[in-house]
Design a protein that fits this description.
heterodimer, A: 818 residues, alpha+beta, 7-stranded mixed sheet, 20 helices, B: 182 residues, 6 helices, 5 strands
Chain lengths: 818, 182
């Protein structure tokens, strides 16, 4: 077994990697014994409840807690003024308070927290608190957000103006000139409605501030490191070194447990006030108010094409309905403009994005973070152009793929690139060439592609420290413990650590004890988001394991009197490759190493390669490796009712290399499922004329696919190993979701000849388009205008092929140009 | 519980309950308005029963009552006295997993594992009545259980596998469900 750079050439002799091995925690999960946050029970534990705002936007005039305080069994009442320090996931938007102080910003914003001897008492106490509000003008849409607002009518006091949170204007080459060179210029508008993660587990947290003044928080979080940061900031002067955050296994995350949350800080403070453990478990309705899900995005896309489908340039605008707080919103805004360029070659590209504050639960990252909306726009846009140019949509895409090992117009470095084989697989599997165009009325096929990051190239807090760290402890019993800050949200990240270490040390993954997601015990990993965990923790684990193997090999070579390069690790033994009889057990090898070097512990860490993007805003989009996906969807539309069924989806995904094929398949199927829900039915909507209350904060009325709606999935796994991935692995948890929505929209067009340029593609939208077509109008449902914004001059960065270096031109040049 | 809030009110009633759970008889006192879900988790410490909504919408908290899959968030423990309640903790035979549990573990049918107890018990109830369910029958039986991770497909495959094993037939997971299609 070779130890080369990143182990990419290991192949046929791999014993663990690439094999469908059961997850190391699978037996706990099927027996219900996995300890989720709400399963944590401590002696003397109190229970907390939050009083949440009933107003969308209002000043808090008074809070009367006297009746609650008088209740026996109530142990502590916390209001916002006790915790004036703000927090937030991004350093640029520290705009949240644990509990609202002066004003509330959406229905569901937390105002008071109560700890009591049991949940019923806490609930009753919350009911007895009286808050008086003075309503302010509420903002329920992007259109509302465009209206001038001053003073208290601004939801937040920062941002360029009014209720605009963030404006982005980036130009990579002169796109207006590129349209002049085009044979056809296509202009379209799209709207992608917001939706939410809907993890099965409701968020829960338990805090205990112990008599030695150390605080421990157990929480259903995907990002214990950032929760640790937020607690230290808000609870100062309590030292960060005295705070321990333990992320319990998450009962589903999908991005919804990636922010530090009010309730986590509130129970911590309540524990400090009472000296007792305090638990909170949110109701399902409250989970809807935590949200941080998919942003509603209005989009405008204009692209120049040659007759053969090659793009000459693209101009894209996005308008995001952000909700009441920043959350990941600045990153989300950049992401709506980032990844258009990594699939098909776009020589010139301009992106303008605007995020608005509205009086709704904050939007943030959901599976695909900011990229599914523009991917929907791009892939439907291309389908329309292929029709106009008389080209096959599959072939047109294949003819203009971004080459491997290249840099895009916006300075994203693409390494491995398996989209071509992905397209071939779904075209062949679906019978695309024979069936498309020959199906009965009402039945159609649609194709779309996508790409996603294998982890963000830059961390949220810019610094030079590792994004992921792994520590290994080997002891004379032969036991190996692997410590890492990563959080298993169901994707199997704990198992990935065990597989990688087991492969390198030649042992059984079930012999490794994995300890994760504990800020006291484990080295920092930034968290389970942006599909970063397999690549980053995998590389860190690989480095730590290879360092351990090096120590063992030296000791074994000395003991067996053989050359170090001959020392081989496999099946729990360490032996001479040339004379396997000269051998010892793995435990004996550890004993030899411990005798020679002392206690055996090694570390590994991972920092992504530097990005060629050096301009401001270039921090969003770079990744060590991009995954690629192609999807064909089959749609059956009833032209009388508009009812849409999707019986089957073919999905091919370039994962680089499977660490475990069964888990890869699970991620592909789960992504397709979640994409199908977004395509057909999921929407997070509010009653703008009814105080911006949520339409349906319940699982019954927030429609998501049951077994009756889920389609068959034919999956293909493409392995195009990437030199930056551990054993060549790239991501799979998010990418396969992206093409589902546009593939379904394109299939609807193939089925009944109308365009639904919106998500979800609901029956009434299909019917509206069919009725318009029947009246001789354009057979389309979708937006017809986007806001006029006074954009500031763009930051101009010439693309690499126009002499660019990745640096922005001075602003003065930008002004001269436009 | 050693502390009480000491106020008299509609929520203050206590019920003396005798429940037979996983073959064991438990006699205990609980607030009279607490659901079976709450007493299983909070009074008996059987936290294997999970909850996703506590409103009967998601299927996560399903348990078996006399062999029928029932949502424990919608039933009062008073109505379960004299009946046999089975939770996920009662599904395995000691350390020996039930074939459904084994199949779910081996096939990746449990990703986050949170909806898994509800699915396993509901599937177990189905196989009791119908040892060879078709895919359509399976979908119908599981249509009240939501899973956000798997897209249900690995769950169906695991049930097929376990059903075959329970019928005494040999079973393999189809190659394409593990490695994808060629």
């Amino acid at each position: 077994m070779g130890t080369s750079e990143n182990g990419k050439e290991r192949s046929s002799d791999l014993k663990v990697i690439g094999h469908p091995i059961r997850k190391i925690d699978a037996r706990s999960k099927v027996t219900g014994q996995t300890r989720f946050a709400d399963d944590v029970v401590l002696p003397r534990m109190l229970h907390a409840k939050l009083l949440r705002s009933t107003e969308a936007h209002a000043k808090i005039v008074s809070i009367d807690t006297s009746a609650a305080e008088a209740m026996p069994g109530v142990k502590a009442i916390l209001t916002g003024d006790a915790l004036p320090e703000t927090f937030g996931i991004l350093p640029v938007s520290q705009d949240e308070h644990t509990l609202c102080i002066d004003k509330v910003r959406f229905v569901g914003d937390p105002v008071v927290a109560v700890a009591a001897i049991d949940e019923d008492t806490a609930e009753e106490a919350v009911r007895r608190i009286v808050v008086t509000y003075e309503p302010l003008t509420h903002v329920s849409s992007i259109d509302d957000g465009m209206k001038p607002a001053e003073g208290d009518d601004r939801i937040q006091s920062y941002g360029p103006f009014g209720n605009v949170h963030k404006l982005v204007n980036l130009e990579f080459g002169d796109v207006e000139e590129s349209f002049e060179d085009a044979d056809h210029v296509q202009e379209d508008m799209f709207f992608f409605e917001g939706n939410t993660h809907l993890p099965m587990e409701q968020h829960a947290a338990v805090a205990y501030f112990d008599p030695d003044h150390k605080l421990t928080l157990w929480s259903s979080t995907q990002t214990p490191h950032y929760v640790h940061r937020a607690l230290a900031k808000v609870l100062a002067p309590l030292s960060a070194a005295h705070i321990r955050v333990i992320a319990c296994p998450n009962g589903g995350g999908f991005g919804g447990k990636s922010d530090p949350f009010n309730h986590e800080i509130a129970v911590s403070k309540l524990s400090m006030m009472t000296g007792r453990p305090v638990k909170i478990c949110l109701t399902r309705e409250e989970v809807f108010y935590c949200h941080r899900g998919r942003h509603p995005v209005l989009m405008w896309m204009k692209t120049g094409f040659k007759k053969n489908g090659a793009m000459t340039g693209m101009h894209f605008r996005s308008f995001l309905d952000g909700g009441a707080y920043g959350s990941y919103g600045v990153a989300s805004t950049f992401y709506t403009g980032a990844l258009q360029t990594v699939t098909y070659h776009i020589p010139r590209y301009k992106f303008q994005g605007a995020r608005f504050f509205t009086n709704k639960p904050p939007c943030g990252p959901k599976r695909g973070h900011g990229t599914p909306q523009p991917r929907f726009a791009l892939e439907v846009h291309l389908d329309k152009v292929a029709c106009k140019l008389g080209l096959d949509p599959a072939q047109m895409r294949k003819d203009h793929l971004v080459p491997r090992d290249s840099v895009t117009a916006n300075y994203l470095r693409v390494g491995s690139m398996g989209l071509g084989p992905c397209i071939d697989k779904v075209v062949e599997g679906s019978g695309w060439k024979e069936r498309r165009g020959n199906l009965p009325e009402g039945v159609g096929l649609g194709l779309a592609c996508g790409s996603y990051l294998s982890g963000a190239g830059l961390p949220i807090y810019w610094n030079a420290m590792p994004h992921s760290g792994v520590q290994l402890k080997l002891d004379r019993s032969g036991g190996v413990a692997c410590f890492c800050g990563s959080t298993d949200i169901g994707q199997g990240s704990d198992s990935v650590l065990a597989y990688v270490v087991a492969e390198v040390l030649g042992i059984d993954p079930f012999d490794i004890r994995v300890v994760t997601a504990d800020t006291d015990l484990t080295p920092v990993d930034l968290g389970s988001y942006s599909s970063r965990v397999t690549l980053m923790t995998g590389n860190a684990a690989l480095q730590a394991a290879e360092r351990a193997r090096e120590l063992l090999a030296k000791a074994v070579a000395e003991k067996l009197e053989i050359p170090v390069p001959n020392v081989t690790f496999a099946e729990g033994r360490v032996f001479d490759a040339e004379d396997p009889g000269r051998s010892m057990t793995f435990a004996e090898a550890v004993q030899a190493a411990e005798s020679k070097f002392g206690t055996i512990g090694t570390v590994g860490s991972y920092v992504p390669p530097a990005s060629p993007a050096k301009f401001k805003g270039g921090g969003v989009g770079p990744s060590p490796a991009y995954s690629y996906t192609a999807i064909v969807a089959e749609a059956h539309v009833d032209p009388e009712t508009g009812i849409l069924r999707v019986p089957k989806i073919w999905c091919a995904h370039d994962v680089g290399k499977c660490i475990n094929p069964a888990l890869v398949m699970g991620q592909i199927e789960g992504s397709v499922y979640m994409g199908l829900g977004e395509a057909l039915m999921e929407e997070m909507t509010y009653r703008g004329n009814r105080n911006v209350v949520h339409h349906h904060p319940s699982m019954l009325e927030y429609k998501s696919p049951t077994t009756m709606e889920m389609c068959d999935v034919v999956s293909y796994v493409i392995e195009d190993p990437d030199p930056n991935g551990p054993f060549g692995a790239k991501e799979v948890g998010q990418g396969p979701l992206l093409p589902v929505m546009p593939a379904v929209a394109n299939a609807v067009f193939d089925a009944v000849g109308v365009r639904v340029d919106e998500v979800p593609i609901s029956p009434e939208k299909i019917l509206r388009a069919l009725q318009a077509k029947a009246r001789g109008q354009e057979g389309r449902t979708g937006p017809s205008k986007v806001p006029e914004i006074a954009w500031k001059p763009p930051m101009r960065v010439p693309p690499p092929w126009e002499g660019g270096t990745g640096e922005a031109l001075p602003r003065e040049d930008a002004r001269v140009k436009h | 519980m050693t502390e009480t809030n000491g106020t008299a009110g509609p929520r203050e009633g206590r019920a003396l309950l005798t429940l037979q759970v996983n073959g064991e008889v438990h006699e205990f006192v609980a607030p009279a308005h607490h659901t079976l879900l709450e007493v299983l988790r909070e009074e008996l410490g059987l936290t294997g029963t999970k909850h996703g909504c506590e409103l009967g919408e998601c299927g996560t908290c399903a348990v078996l009552i006399d062999g029928e899959a029932i949502l424990s968030c919608l039933i009062m423990p008073q109505d379960c006295e004299g009946k046999e309640i089975t939770t996920i903790e009662g599904m395995a035979d000691g350390p020996e997993l039930h074939p459904l549990q084994q199949a779910f573990a081996d096939n990746g049918a449990a990703q986050c594992g949170y909806c898994t107890p509800g699915f396993l018990l509901t599937a177990g109830s189905l196989l009791q009545k119908n040892p060879s369910p078709s895919r359509e029958e399976m979908k119908e039986a599981l249509s009240g259980n939501l899973c956000r991770c798997t897209g249900y497909l690995k769950i169906y495959e695991a049930i097929d596998f376990a059903a075959a094993r329970l019928r005494g037939e040999s079973a393999e997971f189809p190659e394409e469900t593990i490695h994808g299609y060629e």
